[in-house]
Amino acid sequence: MWKGYHDYQSLYMKGLLERNETLQIEALEGLLTASGVLGLDTSRYEKALKKLGVVPMKKRETAVVAEREESSFSSRPSGSVNGKYRRVKSAKVEDGYFVVRFSGRSDEKDLRRFVLKKKRKVLYVFDIARTRLPYSIKRIRGGGFREIRIAQYDPTKIRIVVEVPKAYDIETVMEKDTLKISLPSATKRSSASTESRKSRKGKRSADPSVNLSGSTLRRYTVVIDPGHGGKDAGAVGYQKRLEKDAVLAVAKRLKRVLRKRGFNVYLTRERDVFIPLKKRTRFANRKQADFFVSIHANAAAKRRSYLRNKGIETYFLSPAKTGRAKRVAAIENRAEIENIDRYTKDAVLSMLNREKIVESNKLAIDLQKQMLTSVRRKYKDVVDNGVRKGPFWVLVGAQMPAVLIEIGYITHPTEARRLFNPYYQKLLAEGIANGIESYIYHKTGGY
User: Fold this and answer.
1) pTM for this prediction
2) pLDDT tens digits along 77-127
3) Counting Cβ atoms within 10 Å, is residue 3 exposed (0-12), middle (13-18) or buried (19+)?
4) CA distance linking residue 157 with residue 258, whole number of Å
């Protein structure tokens, strides 16, 4: 049901962006039903349907559907907490195990295990009844395993899938409020090697930009989006330099750096052409990218601010909280959404996936830190404008952590010259690459 809910959200966004009312109505009716079953507020979907001239399902009807669905699994088993369902408090890799902690006592009776052997991979599957996730799905990639997925399989249970290239002796321990699943790396580790790994991990954590192995990075795909292009020049800066040219040059350098390190890399544009905003993230989704990085150059709003406004900042998608974020977003969005009404914009932003926002925020923090570290090796005066939230339309629809980087102010004389300096571009590219590696390192616990 959670998967269906998020699929209908994506469908509704598609309908909004393509101005397809039939698609919007279909998605909204699905969202109403799913929201009722999941106990979520349905008012905004009802309002949206009314705006389209459709009489929505009454709240009492939605409640009846929810009650009927709930009654099918409402018996109070031994694994429930005070007659309610357990919730997953945390799920992460710890010392060679995938560790899931619950809000209440776990029970072996609620755990079902089975194995699926497919071509070139083995899936160890664990279904846990009477349990709910605070999100729809979470994916973790690591060294000894390909991927761990934990998801709300249906309203009654969660499913954990450990995907590995070949079978291994897996161990499962369920005690009190914790489930531990051994991972391939844990089955072959002696206590001495554990201490050695911890020692190495300690050294690496002091420098989170440390390069991960090429074999590790080959599992990741990055889509780089050089902002603007073609008829959309972006900001016009000092000595009439164009944003679209600067960001394309940096994007190409970043592509070379990332590919040299082992990443799979694609650009949304390789030359001076205009690409509609919605097609950029659609391209990333088709490539099944793990990261979407949109590169832009900032511009001061007024001539008197040309010398005062400078620095690097990184944004992730969220309704803007400050006037500054709204101003920057308005500049980057203007090529395409001037004619989209405020209700549509607000409707899209209100349905952003919280888990993706959190991960995008983490990615933005790593990118900002590593970019500054890199460029300040040579240019000590580069200003840190921090990580910010913003309603950037180019990030809407991305199904992976997505950020927008403002690599400097093209209206500032010094920064404009630097943005076209090959050495400065190289430092920026290395910093962005280090930031992506740092995010992966933190996300996978160094595996």
Assistant:
1) 0.54
2) 334 444 468 889 999 998 889 999 998 887 788 898 888 888 788 999 999
3) middle
4) 39
Q: What is the pLDDT of residues 387-435, one digit of tens each?
A: 888 777 778 778 889 999 999 999 999 999 999 999 999 999 999 999 9
Token pair belonging to 282: 């659609």
* pLDDT class of 320 with cuts at 50, 70, 90: low
Q: Give me the torsion for CA of 269, 273, 279, 281, rounded to 10°.
A: 30
- From the number of C-beta atoms within 10 Å of its C-beta (0-12, 13-18, 19+), residue 360 rates as buried
- Residue 434 CA to residue 260 CA, distance in Å, equals 13
Residue type, 408: G
SS3 state at 353: coil
- Measured from the Cβ of residue 274, the count of other Cβ atoms closer than 10 Å reads 14
Burial of 239-251, coded b for 16+ CB within 10 Å and e otherwise, reads: eebbbbbbbbbbb
Nearest by Cα to 253 from 232, 228, 226, 230: 226
- Number of neighbours of residue 86 by Cβ within 10 angstroms: 22
* Mode of pairing for the β-strands spanning 131-132 and 86-94: parallel
Residue 65 falls in which region: left (phi positive, over 0), alpha (psi -120 to 50) or beta? alpha
d(CA 225, CA 228) in angstroms, rounded, equals 9
CA-nearest of 155, 159, 177, 153 to 74 is: 155
Which strands sit side by side in the sheet containing 221-226, from one edge to the other?
A: 264-267, 221-226, 291-298, 402-409, 312-317, 384-390
Containing H/E element for 161?
strand 157-164
Q: What is the pLDDT of residues 179-223, one digit of tens each?
A: 999 998 644 443 333 444 444 343 333 333 445 555 667 789 999
